[in-house]
Every structure is written in C-alpha cells, then in structure tokens.
Design a protein that fits this description.
Helix content is 35%, strand content 27%. By secondary structure, it is α+β, with helices and mostly antiparallel strands. It has one domain. A hairpin with a 4-residue loop joins strand 7 and strand 8. The longest helix has 16 residues. It is globular and about 45 Å long.
Length: 232
C-alpha cells in the first residue's frame, strides 16, 4: 500500500478531514476529546495528511514561531499531534513530507537558523531523531552544550509555560492528559537494547502516564543524515 502525502494549511481542512483526524487520534491515544483536539488544531499552521486511496492513515500538525535566545533570532518549528496507522508503521512517507516542508521553510528564510522542537510521549517519535539528524538534544552520544540547552529550555518555556520542567527536560502530564493506548509503543528487552530507546526510557520514565520528553534539532542540510538526504 502506497501512502500519498499532502501538506496543507490548517484553515483549508474540510470538516470531514478534521473528523477523520480525530478518529485516528482517538484510536491511538487515551484521554483525547474532540473539542480539545480541534482547539489544539486551530493553534497550528499546517498539517501533513497521509492517505491510502481515500482513507486517512496518518497526519502531523506543524507551527512555526520566532524565538530569541542568547541574542540569536531563530525560527522554531513545533510538531504537534502526530500519528500513523499501525498498518503503515515503518513508512517514510511522513518523515519525507515533513522534511520537504522544513526545506521549503529553510529556503523561505535564508540566513536564519531553523530548529525543530518536538515532544515525545513514546519511543517511536524519539527514535526518528537519530534516523534524521547527526546531532540533536538530548542524545546519549553527547552532552548538550550550554547554548543548545538554553535554546531548548527557552523555546520550550515559551511554548509550554510552567508545564515544562527545565531541570528534567520533561513536559509533565496534567490530570487526564493524552497518553498512548496499550500496545502502541510498548517497551521490552529487545527494544531497550537500542541505546537511543534506552536513553529515552531513562530520561522519560513517566511516558506511559503521558509525560513528554522535549527535544530539539537544528534543521540544516549539514545536520541531516546521508540516509535521509538521498531520499530527499
């Protein structure tokens, strides 16, 4: 089955597409309500839709904001609600569509650094980072520089406010928060043999309750792995 990726402005979504997005979200996350989902969707700028024929199989919402840290003016792209149907796990359709969006934003803002801010409730999202980037924060292979850490902390605080804990890098789940349903991203001995997944578990032991690990990566061709560059 071949997934077709389409990136559109949130304002262009039809009511049928919004309803399909919520159904997909509800199938994979506990604690999500339709009013909450739709209100969060309105705070985003773009959505990547993945479909197989006419059936929605995945999506990811995106928003870009300006941020100033240590006197540096940067662009930060935050990925919000993201899900892909189990039948298409392992597909590169979503990361490549996201990468094309990021390349277009980089081209639209020459001379400006562009960073990706994401939160990981499960190891699958975090595992995307080493596939895509040479360097990212947090990572088990290197300690974040003071500059990286300050940028992550200040951008996360600007986006999430007091919910973000700079000491741990965790976005704490609130009562009734969204959390992955059983069987979506379970950890076992085999998966924990992967040092990236083990690092995620170490940093975010409360992920099953909805805690999210906040991560940051600089989006630039020299920080994108050769594996992904070839597919672009």
């Amino acid at each position: 089955m071949h997934l077709r990726a389409q990136t559109i402005a949130v304002g262009e979504l039809t009511s049928a597409q919004r309803a399909a997005m919520f159904r997909l979200m509800d199938a994979h996350y506990a604690g999500v309500t339709e009013p909450q989902f739709l209100a969060d969707l309105q705070t985003k700028q773009w959505v990547i839709l993945l479909s197989d024929a006419e059936r929605l199989c995945g999506f990811s919402t995106q928003v870009m904001f300006d941020h100033l840290a240590d006197g540096r003016a940067v662009k930060v792209v935050f990925s919000g609600d993201t899900i892909i149907d189990r039948a298409h796990w392992g597909s590169l359709a979503l990361p490549l569509a996201w990468g094309r969006l990021m390349l277009s934003l980089l081209a639209a803002h020459p001379g400006t650094e562009v960073y990706w801010l994401l939160t990981s409730k499960g190891y699958k999202t975090y595992r995307f980072l080493p596939v895509f980037f040479h360097e990212f924060t947090p990572c088990h292979t290197h300690e974040a520089s003071p500059l990286e850490r300050n940028l992550l902390n200040s951008a996360a605080t600007a986006r999430f406010g007091a919910r973000f804990d700079p000491a741990t890098g965790i976005l704490r789940a609130q009562p009734g928060a969204q959390r992955l349903r059983e069987g979506i991203a379970e950890l076992d001995t085999q998966r924990l043999a992967d040092p990236h997944i083990a690092h995620f578990q170490k940093l975010n032991p409360g992920h099953r309750q909805g805690d999210e690990l906040v991560c940051l990566a600089r989006f630039h061709p020299d920080n994108v792995t050769e594996f992904i560059r070839r597919r672009f």
